[in-house]
Amino acid sequence: MTITQSVPFALEATGVERRFPLPQEKLFGHRRYLHAVDGIDVRVEPGRTLGVVGESGCGKSTLGRVLVGLDKADAGTIRWNGTPAGAHTGAVQAVFQDPASALNPRRTIAQAIGEALPRMSRSARTTRIGELMGMVDLDPALMSRYPHELSGGQQQRVCIARAIASDPALILLDEAVSSLDASLQMQVIELLRDLQERTGAAFIFISHDLRAVRGISDWIAVMYLGQIVELAPADEFDDQLRHPYSVALRSAEPSIPGDEFQPERIILEGDPPSAVERPVGCRFASRCPVAQDRCRVEAPELVHDDDGRAVRCHFPGSLQLARRVVEGADA
Ligand SMILES: Nc1ncnc2c1ncn2[C@@H]1O[C@H](COP(=O)(O)OP(=O)(O)OP(=O)(O)O)[C@@H](O)[C@H]1O
Ligand code: SF4
Ligand SMILES: [Mg+2]
User: Which segments constitute the ABC transporter domain (predicted)?
Assistant: First the structure.
């Protein structure tokens, strides 16, 4: 069975883990693992976007790949629309950062987009490819061109058109706008939101760029060293944040002129601990500005509220964003 937009869809992941074996140092030595994704519970609603944010190496791409079935989980369950993942080939598509490497240089734009279309007559196919190009604001006159004849932004639109061609219920967008310049990023995000409204597809939008994530997501999962540390609605990603790491991430988001909310930057010292020898207590304790003794010995659980929010911290809300006084602003 192929899921189409008319069928309610949700992805639910419980206790998902993905670990990578390290090269063995001694022939009969103990096998060691890098725990890239470590006990993730998450849910994506139909027609909604789950944003995933966190610094490089925290496990975002690994999680995305596992959730959409491009990689296997070592533990946990993933269910699509209530049934085990894997049963719905074609219902999921993915768009990655580098469009040039995702497109075959010897195939025209029409051939690239047409790859994902079901069997149909030649004229129906050309019409459908033209429609899909129109949906991503690409001139259908580019149909017979090759990828190298298009700009990076146009190439990424081709990848998006190809991703929506098979009518997917879920699209993984992993750093899909990261290679584009700031104004083009916002244009593609607008386009994705518009496509979501029209097709009803759910998105998992992964980026290290919090502004882009906030621009498209309904809910945002903040990851740190393989775990979700906070799950919050995107429109409450300011004063209401409760995990110190989310607060630090938000404070570091570059402001743009006209931003109402301009937080004081919180600078985190040091690097995340090893994903091989994971700390006993809170994984963020070595960098957390409000850590206490308990944090170093007892690992906090992810605690869910009735409203769907979740936080993994013994002292949620103890670090707050401080508003910066903006010269020339009214308030
Ligand atoms: N195939 C693999 N084999 C071994 N280790 C891997 C593999 N894929 C990822 N890792 C490791 O898993 C961890 C998480 O990597 P991942 O690519 O998921 O991070 P990320 O959050 O997407 O980072 P970035 O923002 O840089 O893309 C990293 O330590 C990475 O080195
Ligand atoms: S549990 Fe402690 S160290 Fe961890 S984020 Fe909360 S306050 Fe900081
Ligand atoms: Mg990545």
Answer: 22-250
